[in-house]
Amino acid sequence: MRNPPAMVHTGTAGLRGLAWDHPRVYAPLEELARLDASLPAGCETVGLPLRWERKPAAAFESMPVSGYADDYDILVVAHPGLGSAVESGSLMPMEALFTPAELSSWQRRSVGASYESYRLDGRTWALPLDAATQLAALRPDLVDRRHPPRTWDEVCALAQQVPVALCLGGPHAFLTLCALSLAQGEEPMREDPGPVVGRSTGLAALDMMAGLRSSTPPSLRTADPSGVLRAMAHGTGPAYCPLVYGDAACTWSGAYPLAFSRPPGWRPGGPAGSVLGGAGLAVSAGRVRDAGTRAAVRDHLRRLLSDPVQRELLPMTGGQPAARSAWTGRSGDRHWRDFSRDTLNTVEDAWLRPRRPGFLAFQEHASELLRDGLEASTPHPALLDALDTWYRRGSWR
User: Model confidence over 93-147: pLDDT tens digits?
Assistant: First the structure.
């Protein structure tokens, strides 16, 4: 691990934060900053104000944290990129800012593996702000939300009655393969080096993906979750998507509010494969060096993880809190129309991806390989061989 650059935060203008350009993430952060700015002089609740800037979510999925960490004090990060961020020395461990008791409290209060996803090499490198995982999305006016497909075979049957689509853009073709493997009872990438998924599991998953891709409108075959959900909510997309990262705001926004449910299983009563997502708050090791800045950063992070913000502000502004109490209490469903009731078990059971260095680059390339292969009707054994070759070669690290 390289040493962080000898850079000290200068000036008193305030802190800089970098967030994903997605309303689920930036809207609560900017609303809190706006409330701070509206306070009369002398009533500030945090020593240094925090100004948030945005970067497209796709950039976070493809660019290592080291590429922008030195420009911001607080960063919204995705856990699959943690290995590279830690290896580069870009992030400050939370143990340098908070007591073990405080960190343990946040861990106990987080939903599913949200907190654990930011733990690596015995340290905590980010705090969970937002929780998300792959869910099934549907339009209740076209698909009975009380009886959504229970199995992938039922999804195929539904595709004969209403428009059904897969979400395959960005890294999501690969994440769909992972979810289908999990639904069959097999954890992907159990060994390194080794196959990404077992042969029979992978072939069955690719057969399913190829069949449902053919029913996906061409305009959505490279769309990310936001694109798929936006099309559904505006009446220009499918009636059902079996695997897409859930967005609670879609339950009340758009011309056609959506409903979300547990993804289908491979067989009745079997596991529902789902890959954990979410967003964490990390701190730049290069910028946050002096005591005053550290104190201000601590105050901001404590407030963002506090119960009033997690249970009220985030759901009210379209966020999805990482605090479990927001999913089990009344505040979530007051804003989310049963979203938490219908999806909590899936978030709690979601699979945690590897966090090894270079994994973001691997999942991007793997997804592109799968999309191109499905487009070209590449024989599925050859497609699996290409995926395994890239994984074993390790050139993505």
Answer: 999 999 999 999 999 999 999 999 999 999 999 999 999 999 999 999 999 999 9
**241 and 235 Cβ atoms separated by less than 8 Å:** no
Q: Is 393 exposed, middle or buried (0-12, 13-18, 19+ CB in 10 A)?
A: exposed
Residue 35 exposure: Cα atoms within 13 Å on the Cβ side: 11
Instruction: Report the C-alpha gap between 285 and 3 in whole angstroms.
Output: 9
74-77 vs 279-283, strand pairing mode: antiparallel
The position carrying tokens 């699996």 is 384
Q: Which residue, chain included where needed, has tokens 């948030």?
A: 52
Tokens of 292: 């005053």
Query: Quick one: which of 329, 293, 338 has its CA closest to 311?
Result: 329
Distance, CA of 281 to CA of 125 (rounded, Å): 9
Tokens encoding 320? 């999805």
- Cβ-proximal residues to 345 (8 Å cutoff; 6+ apart), any chain: 262
CA angle 149, 22, 358 (to 5 degrees): 85
- pTM for the model: 0.91
**Contact partners, residue 8, CB within 8 Å, separation at least 6:** 287, 289, 290
Residues 6+ apart with CB under 8 A from 302: none
Per-residue pLDDT tens over the stretch 34-69: 887 654 444 345 568 899 999 887 666 666 788 888
Q: What are phi and psi of 65, to 5 degrees?
A: -55, -35
Residue 19, classed as helix, strand or coil, is: strand
Q: Where are the alpha helices (DSSP H) in the chain?
A: 23-37, 57-62, 82-88, 100-109, 152-158, 172-183, 199-213, 225-233, 291-304, 307-308, 314-316, 324-328, 330-336, 339-349, 359-375, 380-393
